[in-house]
Amino acid sequence: MSWTDVADVLAAACLLAGAGFALVAAIGVLRLPDLLSRMHAATKPQVIGLVLVLAGVALRLREPSALGILALVVVLQMSTSVVASHMVGRAAFRAGQVRHDLLVVDELGDEAADWQEPRGAP
């Protein structure tokens, strides 16, 4: 068995695991009860699934130019999904869309009274 055969088997395993994580993320978005839980399901396993799929593609392609592009996609996805989920969660908390009975710790509860919602367009 050569190293290319081993790389192909690892690529297949990464692709299957990544697809599994993406499936778990999709099921979590549909089945979880509140917005914050759905956001967690949409960001964490989805990003891990994407990283595994791209690792499988990188193991299968084995070209330096493709590896650079795939690494750039991973870095950008990991940085933008964190910021986007934080902003959506904060906006949902400000809009009152968070179920407080499901929160274990509410670090923004005291600050929420000081927020002033904008009225109308800027």
TrEMBL record:
Protein name per UniProt: Multicomponent Na+:H+ antiporter subunit G
Family: Belongs to the CPA3 antiporters (TC 2.A.63) subunit G family.
Organism: Nocardioides lianchengensis
One Pfam match: PhaG_MnhG_YufB
Single GO molecular function: sodium:proton antiporter activity
